[in-house]
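User: I'm putting together a small comparison set for a docking exercise, and I want a reference complex before I start. The sequence is below, and the ligand is flavin-adenine dinucleotide. Could you produce the 3D structure with the ligand included, as structure tokens?
Assistant: Of course. I'll restate your input first, then give the structure tokens for the complex.
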Amino acid sequence: MHQVDVAIVGGGPAGSSAAKAAADGDADALVIEKGVPRSDRDHLGPDSTDAAGMLDYWVDIMDYEPEEIPEDIILSDLEGAYFGGPSESATVKNTQIESSWDGFGFAFQRARFDDWLREEAEAAGASYEVGTNVTDVESTRDGRSYTHRLTLADGEEIEADALVLADGPQRTVTLNAVDQFMPSGRSISSLLGPKTANHIAYQEHRKIPEELFDPELLKFWWGVIPGHTAYPWIFPNDDNVARVGLTMPIGMDLDAVANRDAYTLLQPDDEQIPPGRVYIRRLLEWLYPDYDLEDFPLVEDRGKQKGTEAYPISSTQPIESPTQANVAVVGGAMGATSAFHEGGDHVAVRTGKIAGRLAASGDMQRYNPEWKDAIGDEIIRNVSLAERARDMGPADWDEVFRTVRRMVEFEGTRGRQAFRAGWSGMSLLGRYLWTRRKFRKHGYVQLRESEYAL
Ligand SMILES: Cc1cc2nc3c(=O)[nH]c(=O)nc-3n(C[C@H](O)[C@H](O)[C@H](O)COP(=O)(O)OP(=O)(O)OC[C@H]3O[C@@H](n4cnc5c(N)ncnc54)[C@H](O)[C@@H]3O)c2cc1C
């Protein structure tokens, strides 16, 4: 039996950040990562979604100084974000949120980012076992303390005082591990089950013709495909390659879509929601009618497999962790990722850092209040925007972008004024501020620690 102070399930941004922080605190920290092959990495590593944009203020949320971000992970500096509706659009050039990063943000190479976080953790003294799954966790109580026994797919057993669950949005380990602390008759699956608490995302790495490639803008189109917080995007990488992708709820029923003719990327003879690759083809045809799909060739040595990748992404609200059992759930596993704009690496890194530090110092009960202090504002913003978007259809999105565009133009001509048209410009519209009120005082938490049977 291998014994450690802190066992960490999953070696993505959350897990590696937890490992570094725990090792920095002199704990014996072990990351178990199942290990995923990728076209853009020559060794097994974490399941690195290669969709990676970092906004300026996210660097602060990660609790990194700008100069600590290695240059070789950055693919391009971003100058703004373009939001398209069926027929309106707006481009915002600042997030309007105070930050120490100079610029709108950057696009980065996710596999390199994950490798960097792992190198940092190993340099601090953490260990990794890559290439084997955690299949089971059994937690036993002895007086006031708990011991966690992890079983790996290769039969190895590991015993740990503290457990950090960083297995991402599929929560292959988290669901059963946390269920041990749920009151009888309740399961965490009703809140974090992967089919209901996640969206599916699909993307293709495509070479974009020189004259169309825009390396400085993230581009999103809202109200062109049906579904709550469902949208296609084009994210620039380097070398005229962009990730063309989309996110949408899992298992949508086309018959349940109201006003389906209004969605640009649906066609009258669709019998079901089109698969991601069809949506992407239609997006490119719609945006660039003078070009053929062959003008945007797949870049097969990138991404997970032959230039394409499909991933779940958490699209729910976070839970508190059963910290009395010395367990922290972090990053995508805890439901911290935004349903609205997909951003999640920053909250994964930060929650991991907090959990690892507290696990090492034996102070895990501080975890829930500390992560809320660190990322609470960001979660409120994200869940409020997602809520605001819930019933919006194509015409509503056009109205939003028309208004934001006017606000941006107005700002350009009149200087400072009451409307601020940055990343949160959309927040000024409609019911956003009212919605925010609902999530104040940690109203965004789906499950409180007091609800566990501890
Ligand atoms: C298409 C897409 C686009 C995105 N775009 C952005 C973006 O632009 N910016 C941004 O900030 N975020 C983005 N995100 C979100 C971001 O990828 C996630 O929030 C982030 O990866 C969460 O980090 P994590 O460490 O919590 O989980 P993950 O990165 O999912 O890591 C979990 C790890 O656990 C491992 N694992 C799972 N089960 C087991 C097991 N049983 N045993 C051992 N290991 C296991 C997995 O292999 C994986 O490596 C995007 C996500 C998607 C899907």
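The domain at 2-76+100-195+315-386+444-451 is CATH 3.50.50.60 (FAD/NAD(P)-binding domain). The longest strand covers residues 198-207.
User: Thanks, that's exactly what I needed.
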